[in-house]
Amino acid sequence: MIFGTRKTELPDAQNALPGRSERPFAVGTTHRVLGTPIETPLDSGVVPDGFEVAVVGLGCFWGEEKTFWEVPGVWSTSVGYAGGLTPNPTYEEVCTGRTGHAEVVRIVFDPAKVSYADLLKVFWENHDPTQGMRQGNDRGTQYRSVLLTTSEEQQRQAEESRERYQEQMTKAGYGRITTAIQPLQDYYYAEELHQQYLAKNPFGYCPLHATGVSYA
User: Which residues are bridge partners to 106 per DSSP?
Assistant: First the structure.
């Protein structure tokens, strides 16, 4: 986003930053746009029964959170860090490339109003999943394309959707999709200033890297 050249190789456990046992910053309480809680653990009673969680990474999380909070049926969103090694990282640490985390959006949704398949369509159509460790001029492991699944069914649907979208991308002249699909291990909320950033800063940095290829 703003700190220059990023590392484009994921660290191993020996080279990853050590992190910490507790989060060192505030996250905020209420979603700036949706009016729902920002922190939404499914086992806490905060989230309505039957709602589900999706976690996706498709570049700079400021703009991508807005993309998903505008989807009907999405109850809450937050931005954070996932897919890496360092516990409770800060934004500055993620920017070094030494935590292994991607910038991601965590989406709480009502499956009676929007399906996981619907969210996958939004995911594929709103970035270029063939770029490896970058999105446009945003370079580094934190900007990689990832789907972090929360159930076996999500894993199955995500893998099938990648194969399906690859067909469309190939027809359009693009190369191989580099999106990693793996079960979610840990999700760490980002700092309060990053939550709903474009609602707080409507003229903030929001690059678009969609290919224009439809997930038909």
Answer: 55, 78
